[in-house]
Design goal:
It is a single chain. The protein has about 130 residues and is mainly β. The protein contains two helices and ten strands.
């Protein structure tokens, strides 16, 4: 489940078994569009909304690149410009490094990464459907 305060327009979430994009939020109702058909849906109740974990498959849809030198069974490292993200699978956290210095930790899910990127870079993180 995701707290509604974590979401904003443009976030990708999992609902009804599909990856969907948040179009608007009003109280406990989230209006989304499924990526493939863009048909709008209203989701009442946040218990139906799940975060999308930062897996290799998900990260390949972003602008971040995998660093093959730093892949092991528990952690993955991705980079984009001056940002480096170490996804700690067991802890479900992602360490964010800026210019090689630890900046912060975020939950290891797509909407948290989108929100962090927007807040720090001032632009949306590009995600391919």
């Amino acid at each position: 489940m995701i707290n509604v305060n974590e979401l904003r327009r443009g976030n990708f979430i999992k609902a009804e078994g599909f990856t969907q994009c948040v179009l608007s939020i009003f109280r406990n109702t989230v209006v989304t569009a499924k990526g493939e058909d863009e048909k709008q849906r209203s989701i009442n109740g946040l218990h139906e909304i799940e975060p999308i974990p930062l897996t290799d498959e998900v990260m390949k849809k972003t602008e971040f690149k995998t660093d093959p030198l730093f892949i092991n069974k528990t952690n993955r490292i991705y980079s984009l410009g001056r940002l480096l993200i170490e996804v700690k699978q067991e802890l479900r956290k992602a360490a964010i490094y800026f210019d090689g210095t630890l900046f912060c930790y975020i939950p290891a899910n797509l909407h948290s990464l989108q929100n962090f990127y927007f807040a720090t870079m001032g632009e949306e993180l590009t995600i391919k459907h």
